[in-house]
Structure formats: structure tokens, C-alpha cells
Amino acid sequence: MKLYLHGHDYKYAAEQMLLTLFPAQRPGYPAGPPAPGEDALVLSLHRGAVWATATAALSYGGREYRAARRCRTAELTDPLSTDRALQRILKLAFYDAGTAARGGEPPWGALTGVRPVKIPTKAMLAGASPAQAARLLRDTYRVTEGRRRLAMDCAGASLAALRSLAPGEVSLYVGIPFCPTRCAYCSFVSADVGRALKLIDPFLDALCRELAATGAMLADAGLRVRTVYFGGGTPTTLSAPQLDRLMGELADHIDLSGCTEYTVEAGRPDTITAEKLAVLARRGCSRVSVNPQTMQDAVLERMGRAHRADDILRAYALARESGIGCINMDLIAGLPGDSAEGFRASLEQVLDLGPENVTVHTLALKKGSRLMEEGGGLPSGAAVADMLDFAWAALRGAGQRPYYLYRQKYMSGSFENVGWCRPGAESLYNICMMEELHTIVSLGGGGVTKLVDRATGYIERLANAKYPQEYIQKIDAICADKARVAQFYAAHGR
Q: What's the chain's average pLDDT?
């Protein structure tokens, strides 16, 4: 769709709303005026003495749709509040015209961000009741009833997590950018272990150096680790001795006496062995992921997975036998070749196993993934909606409740990813990471440290090199960069 911006340059806001309303469209910014009958949006902003007014003139399918939203000029008190207010009215004007054109509203209404739960959470922290926060989602952002309930459930979990955090606590993320094979939907920076086996030991050498530098920095700054999360990639691509070395080095260099949650994404069943799980349990892992994504063999093959559903059952049994107390399992709604019936069968099998956590993702077509490039065979938005409706009912019926959620670009049906759990089995790391409740110190390839000032919400980011070879080459600079964490806390407090 051609986009014409008048009186402003808020391209990102216009593009986000375009993606929400018309996910198959891609933005263009032509130099000339719209041609008669072409799909195009003219999004204008006028700032007057009393009101700032956004107008949307949308041509779509041979028809014209217009809408306007405004805010008081008195609200535009500083650059940040000005940007937020103006983007809000521009988005809402586009939304009003776009929903009239498409003949309906998306499930998350006019919300376009990754973290919708932040809206009710902030409202309640500012003194709003849960009912008032829910009305904000309904009246301002037009969020549908089912999504409002999801958001409010997760907002309650976020507030509980926030109350549990003490000053000076941080979480630790350790990224292992290796996988046995690359899944069709994946865009994560990871190395196929078949081609990168020779890099694993040098990578671990570098990572252990980063662990030592991080431990020294945390001790000097008086910061304590509350949760640890090994992600990737697939951390259990490493051998049992390699895992033992890594987790041992972490314990040697970093004080874990205050750690209440230690997660390792075992993920791929073809990487899970009893020997590896024994290492995880002995080294203090309290939560492990065994992620099938689907229990349908034909769909697994189409995804590029090198295992079958029987392997998932075997891996789950090993995880139970290991004594690790909390098991998470992931499923994806909308995989190529899957159906509503196939997804239901997969979820029923997972629930029969009795995991403490179940995460239900909606397929997102990610740039750089094989699926984005090839496409084809994807379930319709209506089929994905059926999958998610079934998941909600089945999970609640099994005694699980939603505790965190997030959204991504190019998601099937503009839905969401939701983490479910038995009461008391919430992953504190997942909540802190997604709701940006406190600092996440990230190590390893592609790790992004997110420094959070809890008093103001101000955030700074520090990114590690992405690729294993690059990470190894730049480890001296990466280690030195950890000093910026202590500098941040010296400037902003705990």
C-alpha cells in the first residue's frame, strides 16, 4: 500500500498499523500523488493552538474511508510525551479508517506493540483498579474481550513478579548459538552444529572468559543474580562434558546463592540425553524446556526437525526421571501442513504428559527464515484462531493460567504468544524479560543486555556479537563492555 505522510514523519507508526490491519500489504512511499483508484493512505497531522489533529484518508478496494483523531496541544509537554501522543492519534485515525475498510477489527484492536500487558500494568501501578485497566484496553485501544482477559491475567502475574523483586537483583541470560539443524520458521542467529562443530570449544573458552568478567563486575557493583536462563539456539547441542564445564564455570565465577530459578532450554528432543539431564540437575537447573512445537510427524518433517513425536515422549520421560522440578513444553499454532485437528491432537498429548508450563506460540514469518522465503501450506487465519480458541479452553480446563505474553511482526492472524502454567509455576525470568521489570545481563553469542532503571523505566541496551566466530574474535571488547553495567547502576541506582 502506498503511504503519504503530511505534516509529520512517523513512518514507523504508520507501518505498524498497516501491518496490523492489512498484514499482506507492504508500505511504499512514492514521490507523486495517489492515482485514482489505487490502494493508498494519506495520513496527515495538524498541530493547532488547542488541538493536534490526525486525519486518515484511505483508498481501498475502490472505496474511500476517512477518519480523524485529536489530542489537546497541552498534552505535548516534552519530546517523549509529544511523540507518544501524536503517534497514538495517527495510529487511531488510521485504525478507524482501516477497520471500516476491512469490515472488522483485529483481535488486539489498535495495539501494535510487542508488550500489550504493559498498558494495564502501568495503569494499575498508577492507581487504576483492574476494572479500570480493562476498560482502558477496551475503550482506548479496542481490544477484544478474550484478549483483554489474557492481558489482565498476565498483568496480575507481572505485578506479583514486580513485588517479589528486591533492589540490586538482576537476571542472567546465557546464549548458546548452536543447533543440530535449522527449523523452517527460525531466524535466530545460530550455527548448524554439523558445520560449526569446530567452533564450539573455542566459543566455550570465550564464554567462560565473559562469565569471569561478569562475575567480577556483579560482585564489585553489589548486584545479585535472581534468575538464570540458558537459551539459544539449543543449549543441549553441547555435550554433557561441555555443559558441565560451562555450568561449573558459571557457579565458580558468579554468586548464585540468591538464585530462585535456573532454566535451561533443552528444547530439541534429539539433543536430550539422560547424561546431559543429570548434569543439569546436579548443577542446579530447576526448570527445563522440552519443546515439541507439534506432535505431528509430517509437520515435524516439513519444519526440518530431525526427530519424531516418539522422541519427544522419550525426552520428556528422561526429563521427569532427572528430578528437575519444572518442565516447559512449547507448541506453535499455524505451522505449515498443520490443521486445527492436528494442533488439537498435539496439545492433548502434551497436556496428558502433565508439564508445569505450556507455551503456545503463533507462527510468525520471520525475515531470514526458510519459511519466509518459500512460504506455502500455511493454515488460514481462521484455522489459527480455532487452534488458539481450543488451546485457551483446554489449558484452563487443565488448571493452567496465562502468566506472560508477547506479540511479533508477521504473526498469523495478528494473534500472540502466551505462556501458561500451573498456579505457582510461573517463570520469573520470562515475566521480567518480557515486561522489562529489571535488568537482564546477557552473555554469549547474540546476547543483548537490557539495563532497566526500575524507578523511571529508562532502558539501555548492550549487544554482544551475533555469530560464533565474530563472538570469539571480539571477546576482549565484550568482556570490557561489561563494566557499563556497573556504570549504569552507579548513575541510576538500584
A: 92
Q: What percent of the chain has pLDDT over 90?
A: 81
Query: Residue 163 corresponds to which amino acid?
Result: R
Contact yes or no for 419/403 (Cβ under 8 A): yes
Residue 439 forms beta bridges with which residues?
A: none
**DSSP letter assigned to residue 33:** P
For residue 420, the SS3 value is strand
Global pTM value: 0.92
Query: Residues 154, 403: contact at Cβ < 8 Å?
Result: yes
Contact in structure between 467 and 445 (CB atoms under 8 Å):
yes
Among 332, 348, 347, 327, smallest CA distance to 408 is for 332
Answer whether the bond into residue 61 is a cis peptide, omega within 30°: no
Between 1.20.120, 3.20.20, 2.60.40, 1.10.260, what CATH number should domain 165-334+430-485 receive?
A: 3.20.20
Per-residue burial over 391-409, b if 16 or more Cβ lie within 10 Å, else e, is bbebbeebebbbbbbbbeb
| Cell numbers placing 87 | 503517534
Q: Which architecture does CATH list for 1-104?
A: 2-Layer Sandwich (3.30)
Start-end of CATH 3.30.160.100 domains in the chain:
1-104
Distance CA 362, CA 447 (A): 24
The mean-pLDDT minimum among 14-28, 89-103, 253-267 falls in: 14-28
Band of residue 183 on the pLDDT scale cut at 50, 70, 90: low
